[in-house]
Design a protein that fits this description.
This protein has 139 residues and is of the alpha+beta class. The chain has a 7-stranded mixed beta sheet. The longest helix has 16 residues.
């Protein structure tokens, strides 16, 4: 991958054995070693083999491809190392950049929570539900 690395400290079997329901990663720019954001998997459901995926970048690091690459790495980790079959998330409708990140990584829009969130400056906005199945990711 270009210039982002996820910090992964333990294999799938350790997480599952300990019944961890979340994993967090640092998003680091490789050449400078600068922390640019965080990402993770929450609400890991080991029996159903799915998890909620999230990511956050400092504003000064937006539109540089870091989120797209970090999400691609998390998908690979979740599907190949954790043996999950589905990732899901919710994004605020005004967040067009995050919607592009999800769609570039193969996530599909599957639903809408109408006027579900309040964002200062935007008012009540819809939450868009996205998900990615392992078999779609492999295509």
């Amino acid at each position: 991958m270009r210039c982002v690395r996820g910090i992964i400290s333990a294999p799938h079997s350790v997480y599952r054995k300990n019944k961890n329901t979340s994993i967090s990663f640092a998003i680091v720019e490789n050449s400078e070693g600068e922390l640019v954001g965080f990402s993770g998997l929450e609400a890991i459901h080991w029996q159903a083999r799915n998890a909620f995926v999230w990511y956050f970048l400092g504003k000064e690091h937006w539109e540089k491809g870091y989120a797209t690459e970090a999400l691609a790495l998390m998908c690979r980790f979740a599907f190949e190392n954790m043996n999950l079959i589905k990732l899901h998330t919710i994004v605020y409708e005004p967040n067009k950049a995050s919607i592009r990140v999800l769609e570039k990584n193969g996530f599909k829009l599957v639903g809408r929570f109408r006027k579900h969130f309040y964002i200062p400056g935007h008012g009540y906005v819809d939450g868009l539900a996205y998900e990615l199945l392992r078999e779609e990711w492999q295509e």
